[in-house]
Specification:
It comes from Thermovibrio ammonificans (strain DSM 15698 / JCM 12110 / HB-1). Keywords: Membrane, Transmembrane, Transmembrane beta strand. This is Surface antigen (D15). It holds the Pfam family POTRA. It is found in: Membrane. The chain is an alpha+beta fold. Among the domains are: 73 residues, Ubiquitin-like (UB roll), CATH 3.10.20.310; 81 residues, Roll (Ubiquitin-like (UB roll)), CATH 3.10.20; 72 residues, Roll (Ubiquitin-like (UB roll)); 67 residues, membrane protein fhac (Ubiquitin-like (UB roll), Roll); 74 residues, Ubiquitin-like (UB roll) (Roll), CATH 3.10.20.310; 168 residues, membrane protein fhac: a member of the omp85/tpsb transporter family (Porin), CATH 2.40.160. The strands form eight sheets. It has a 16-stranded antiparallel sheet with strand order 21-22-23-24-25-26-27-28-29-30-31-32-33-34-35-36, with no helix packed on it. Strands 3-5-4 form a three-stranded mixed sheet, with helices on one face. Helix 3 packs antiparallel against helix 4. It is globular.
């Protein structure tokens, strides 16, 4: 470093730590030079040294006394210059942008000066403004035909005694043009001029705004021969009203659109002629239409299609039968037939269609079938095995897939610039053509990972996020490793923004990771009401790495007037103690209000969370729980101490977290309480729920839920009533009160069970973008023991719902009608809740 150069100490620390690894596998001088150049330094090589001369980034962009109305332009200038290498051309562009905006605001001769100050820590750019005189509209002069002059004058009146605003003037110009076009003046002109006037006070200069309107001749559009379609329907097809210009090009475009419209609505033989007649006061545009016969397709036939393709096209053919002839649909079907042929290797197939009366006939000339006989890779020995494509149809898609496979294979083994070209050799054998596919591979230069730098850390210490860095200097470059690194950082929940950029040099690719730390303190919450829960209060507070330890802290709680409350403090440490795991510790204080009792719990939980794949997550927990049963007449032990091991596995393949419409979600839980762990209870719990969503159309979704659970006592010990299963309420079997689908004791108290089954089917229909209707069927039952489980006697309900969709999930209104009654409850129940039931 030359003296006086501003360098981030954290950057130097990371570079020094990684020098040995990088220098052992690549030319670290060139890698360092490229890296520092990318980071905004000017660099030169001097013998074995890399000399960093200066820091060239613009770190501050300031504005001195900017006139009003420039706020958006100032933001644009900052984006253009700040945190980028100083560039005189970019600076000049910024000045021009500001000048143009000032002139648009009515300033006569504005001036913008830029003062550039160079320091050891980058450049500072200061913009100074001399807006000059402000043009003030003192009068408006309208030059237009009498029938238009008053309207234009009224339109321009608000401009008087106000500064010239060219954006507003152009907007009014377009408004006048739009009215003229709407009245048939397609070649109109609207011109404005600004003329200086004498006088003026201070920096205000009076001007006159002259608006000259040249409407030209009006155009009268006439359609003749149109029997089935109205003037209004056909006029919408014309292009010259939208183009605000009439010429031969727009006339021909309009004629073609009319022809296309007719041929897509049952008139395959239509003819349209367009002519223009100029009269003294108007221009007449005539479209003479010879519609021809109306054709309804009664039968569709395929001739010459190979048998293996016929079945897949039956539905497509039937959609044309009984419908008016549509050239668009015919072409779509022809393209579908060609695609099917080519996907089976008939790459020279031809498809023609003819219309005989009301019969549509597609004639297929498939030609020979091209089949892959062998694949030969030239230029490199592949480190991964090619998919077996021998005997498969030769298609462009197959070739593209093979090329992509080879490129990805080599990119993950140090060759990101690999290029693949296919050279097929054909050998005709009767009706088949065997293809020898030669794939010429140029692997390009090999690369290793150079320096791996993380930038943007302010509170968080570098060592605290070391485990999050999965890409290591000196290892073979892999594109997949970069993607994994990005996912790891994003999933850590420590950063609000993550980007990774490659800096390439001879033999090495350095990775510059830019992060923005999450908020030091953030909060949110809401107040609501639910029929099962009563008044609902929800609050969430989080903090990201407040002590620089790379941890996330959470404090959140829910209060439900009729169901209880829970408060949670959670500490999360990503990538600890191993890179593929997240460690968390949480304390949960929880009260639940059931029909026959209340429960009070304090749970201390240690958890190891692992994201095993894109969709699969695994959670390993050890929990200590202190539990108490109160306000009950149930004969049961009142206090418990539980120690348990819990395994949770979630497979989430839904297309959205808040408003899913497709995919599936499977959650399984296994818990072992007591035995060698100690405590007052010994039992095992197994619970699993599956939900499946499938779209039926653009608006309809069918949703299915199946679930069940079992508890087995160990060593003859009873399972606490508060750990047993209960159903009923807005989230399980709607129409029933929360927790009232349950076995009862001799006094009628709901005491829960050791096994349950649950089934739900729901049809969701979007009537608008954010409004959804639903019809549902819910069924479930809780059994005293596992041996009592059976598929009969379940409590079921049917109902309907209305949902208002928000970005974080739906506000839900459901009514469920009981198909099996519970004593003391009505025929149904209305539920207000938030989020989907499943």
């Amino acid at each position: 470093m030359e003296k006086g150069v501003c360098v981030d100490p954290l950057l130097v620390k990371q570079v020094n730590r990684q020098l040995t690894e990088v220098c052992s596998v690549a030319d670290c001088r060139k890698a360092l030079a490229s890296l520092f150049s990318y980071l905004g330094y000017s660099v030169r090589l001097k013998g074995k040294e890399v000399v960093v001369e200066e820091f060239r980034l613009v770190k501050r962009v300031e504005f001195q006394n900017p006139p009003k109305g420039l706020s958006e332009s100032l933001k644009t200038v900052r984006l253009l210059l700040q945190d980028k290498p100083f560039d005189p051309q970019a600076l000049q562009s910024a000045k021009q942008l500001l000048l143009l905006r000032l002139k648009a605001l009515g300033y006569a001769s504005p001036e913008v000066d830029a003062e550039v100050e160079k320091s050891r820590c980058g450049y500072r750019v200061l913009f100074r403004f001399n807006a000059g005189s402000l043009l003030l509209v003192k009068s408006v002069q309208v030059e237009a035909p009498k029938w238009l002059k008053g309207w234009v004058g009224k339109l321009l009146k608000p401009l008087v005694d106000n500064p010239v605003n060219l954006t507003q003037v152009r907007s009014l110009q377009e408004k006048v043009e739009s009215r003229l076009v709407a009245e048939g003046y397609y070649n109109c002109k609207v011109i404005y001029r600004i003329v200086p006037l004498e006088g003026g006070v201070g920096k205000l200069r009076p001007v006159k705004l002259i608006f000259k309107v040249l409407p030209g001749k009006p155009y009268k559009v006439v359609f003749k021969g149109n029997r089935l379609f109205s003037y209004k329907e056909l006029f919408k097809l014309l292009t010259f009203p939208k183009a605000k210009s009439f010429d031969e090009f727009e006339l021909e475009n309009s004629r073609r659109r009319i022809v296309r419209f007719y041929r897509n609505h049952g008139f395959p033989f239509v003819k349209v002629k367009a002519s223009v007649t100029e009269k003294p006061r108007e221009v007449v545009v005539l479209f003479q239409i010879d519609e021809g016969p109306f054709v309804r397709v009664e039968s569709v036939k395929l001739e010459g299609l190979p048998k293996e393709l016929e079945e897949g096209l039956d539905d497509a053919l039937s959609r044309l039968e009984g419908e008016p002839f549509s050239l668009k649909k015919v072409k779509e079907l022809r393209a579908q037939i060609l695609y099917s042929l080519k996907s089976k290797g008939y790459i020279k197939a031809k498809v023609n269609y003819t219309l005989k009366g009301d019969s549509l006939i597609f004639s297929v000339l498939p030609g020979p079938q091209f089949v892959v006989d062998s694949v030969v890779v030239k230029g490199v020995k592949l480190p991964c095995r090619l998919p077996n494509v021998k005997g498969k149809p030769y298609t462009d898609r197959l070739v593209s897939d093979l090329e992509n496979f080879i490129q990805e294979c080599l990119a993950d083994r140090g060759h990101p610039d690999a290029a693949v070209s296919a050279e097929p050799l054909f050998n005709r054998k009767g009706r088949r053509v065997s293809v020898r596919l030669n794939l010429k591979v140029n692997p390009g230069p090999g690369y290793v990972f150079g320096f791996v730098l993380i930038r943007g850390l302010k509170r968080t210490k570098l060592w605290a996020v070391k485990n999050l860095l999965t890409v290591e200097p000196g290892t073979v470059y892999s594109h997949r490793a970069v993607v994994k690194q990005y996912s790891r950082l994003s999933d850590s929940r420590l950063f609000s923004f993550v980007s990774i950029n490659d800096v390439k040099t001879d033999g090495a690719i350095s990775e510059v990771i830019k992060v923005d730390e999450g908020a030091l303190l953030s909060s949110r919450g809401f107040i609501g009401y639910g029929t099962d829960s009563g008044l609902v209060l929800n609050g969430f507070l989080s903090s990201t790495s407040p002590f620089g330890m790379g941890m996330k802290y959470f404090l959140f709680g829910n209060y439900r007037q009729k169901e209880g409350y829970d408060a949670v403090f959670k500490l999360l440490k990503p990538a600890f103690p191993f890179k593929d795991y997240d460690l968390s510790y949480s304390i949960v204080k929880k009260e639940q209000i059931y029909e026959s009792f209340k429960s009070d719990r304090t749970i201390y939980s240690f958890s190891l969370l692992r994201k095993a794949s894109r969709y699969l997550t695994q959670d390993f927990r050890f929990e200590i729980s202190r539990e108490k049963v109160k306000d009950t007449k149930i004969q049961t032990q009142r206090r418990f101490l539980e120690r348990r091991l819990v395994y949770l596995q979630t497979y989430n393949h839904l297309n959205s977290l808040s408003n899913p419409t497709e995919g599936y979600y499977l959650r399984s839980k296994f818990s072992l309480a007591g035995t060698l762990l100690g405590g007052n209870t010994d039992y095992t719990l197994l619970e699993s729920r599956l939900q499946l969503l499938h779209p039926l159309g653009s608006r309809e979704v069918i949703a299915l839920r199946v679930g069940g659970g079992v508890i087995r006592s160990l060593n003859g010990k009873a399972v606490p009533v508060l750990d047993r299963f209960f159903l009923g309420g807005a989230e399980s079997v709607r129409g029933y009160k929360y927790g009232t689908i349950s076995p009862t004791d001799s006094n009628g108290n709901f005491v829960g069970g050791k096994a349950y089954g649950l089934f739900s089917l729901e049809l969701r229909y979007n009537v608008r973008k954010n409004v959804q209707l639903a019809l549902f069927y819910d069924s479930g039952r809780v059994f005293p023991t596992v041996k009592d489980f059976k598929l009969s006697g379940w409590y079921s309900s049917v109902g309907f719902g209305i949902r208002y969709l928000t970005p974080v999930g739906p506000l839900r209104f459901d009514y469920g009608y009981k198909l099996k009654r519970i004593p003391g409850q009505g025929p149904g129940r209305f539920h207000i809740s938030f989020g989907y039931p499943f």
